[in-house]
Amino acid sequence: MVENKKQLYQRTSYLLRVLHLTIRHWSKIHEKEIILFLLCFFSYGYFFHGGGANQNATYDQIRSIVEYGELSINRFVYNTADLSVYKGHFFSNKGPGLAFLGVPIRLVLFKSKEVFLHFMMEDTYFLLVCHLISWLTVSFISAILCVVLFRFISRLTQCTTTALVGTMGYAFGTTAFAYSTIFYAHQIAAAFSFIPFYIVFVLNDKKTNSFSSLFLSGLLAGYSVITEYPCIFVWLILFLYILFLFSDKKKYIFLFLAGSSIPAIILLSYNYLCYGNPLLFSYFSHFVSNADIQSGLRGTAKTISLPSIVILYKITFDPYRGIFFYCPFLLTFFPGIYFFLRKEGASKEFLLFITIVIYYFVFNASYRYWYGGLSLGPRHLVATLPFMVLLSSFFIKQYPKISICGVLVSFFSMLMAVSVTPETP
Q1: pTM as predicted
Q2: Of all helices (H) and strands (E), which one includes residue 289?
Q3: Which of 67, 82, 251, 252 could disulfide-link to 57, CB 3.0 to 4.6 Å?
Q4: What is the pLDDT of residues 218-228, one digit of tens each?
Q5: Inter-CA distances, 368 with 371, 380, 423, Å
Q6: Distance CA 308, CA 94 (A)
Q7: Can you state the angle between helices 160-173 and 140-157, rounded to 10 degrees?
Q8: Strands (DSSP E) along 51-192, which ranges?
Q9: From CA 188, how far away is CA 82, in angstroms rounded?
């Protein structure tokens, strides 16, 4: 018995040493990425902007699921105006993706509620819960997105300095900074749309077989759709990209679709449980906005029209919501296109990324609520920002000093907004 215990102790000690050496070796290799992640994660987590109509709709649904086992938010209907209504029941009018990400965190905090109440008032506990959910979902995934963007630019340009400048510009010099500190779904959609492209790009670049990579890319891209429905177009572009790259590898295509099918099943099940029809989305049901009740698919369809030149100007250069007014760093996008084409030519990746950028600008210019309610800049463009920065990368490499100046100006602009509130009228 003593001998067995001794052997067990020796094996355990050996495994722990191996694990320690492995982690230490991995940390040295990825030191830059780890530092970048921690910088972004804790910087975003420092800020907390409380609730609002948009955030509360999701917070309320998380609380209903965890505490009452209900998808409806009938108990909290007073707390938000962002509602969908079906047969007398009220639901969040958002895609359910962000709420589902927050449920496990809320469950842990709910089970340990009594512990927290020994140290704080209940109101403080609820504020802490909201902050932690926002930080451990939106801020956490945003920080991962920054690391992926850094690696993508580094691999594309073969220049770490360019990757660092571009990533810092994105992380702290665009509205991504603001929306990484607030419980909106846009940064989740941006991350889960962008990261699959990097996975597929690396897979194709290395010419290696990786079934799990294709499954993961499908899972993430599919989840972006159930988080923000306009991401369906980005999913389609990614699917066409995979079809083109791996037309002779049917297993790859199947694995991507298999990964995407999981979020699709989740969404269809959610729609059925809430609205009695898998194809009836929250946007297609009756929804309430500032006491103005609009009905059904017809009312939703009326919010989309032909693109407007006036709105396009307002979401680009106008002081009210213009993305380039708020984030001068993003002006590198325009010369960036030229330098990207000069370096890479009209590659498949360039055509994909520029198509996605154009799609979001056209969509936003066609949308009745282009201003996004209370928001900093055009929030419906947030998902396209990493693609814009990626397309700027060769200009940043050619003119790093000009790019750094743009980053600094944009950083102070964003810092002023984040220090107060990103929800501007």
Answers
A1: 0.92
A2: strand 286-289
A3: 82
A4: 999 999 999 99
A5: 8, 12, 19
A6: 25
A7: 150
A8: 83-86, 89-92
A9: 19
| DSSP codes joined into one string, 26-43 | HHHHTHHHHHHHHHHHHH
Tokens read off for 83: 């509602």
* Unique residue bearing structure tokens 């154009």: 358
pLDDT more than 70, % of the chain: 89
At residue 285, the pLDDT reads 65
Q: Which of 357, 346, 349 is nearest to 386 (CA)?
A: 357
d(CA 164, CA 40): 13
Backbone angles phi, psi at 412, to 5 degrees: -65, -35
Neighbours of 127 (CB within 10 A): 15
Given CA atoms 220, 222, 228, 233 in this order, what sign does their dihedral have? positive
Does residue 287 surpass a pLDDT of 60? no
DSSP 302: T
Which residues 6+ apart lie within 8 Å of 296 measured at CB?
Answer: 284, 285, 286
- Please report, as a single letter, which amino acid is at residue 337: I
- The rounded distance, in Å, linking the Cα atoms of 319 and 317 is 6
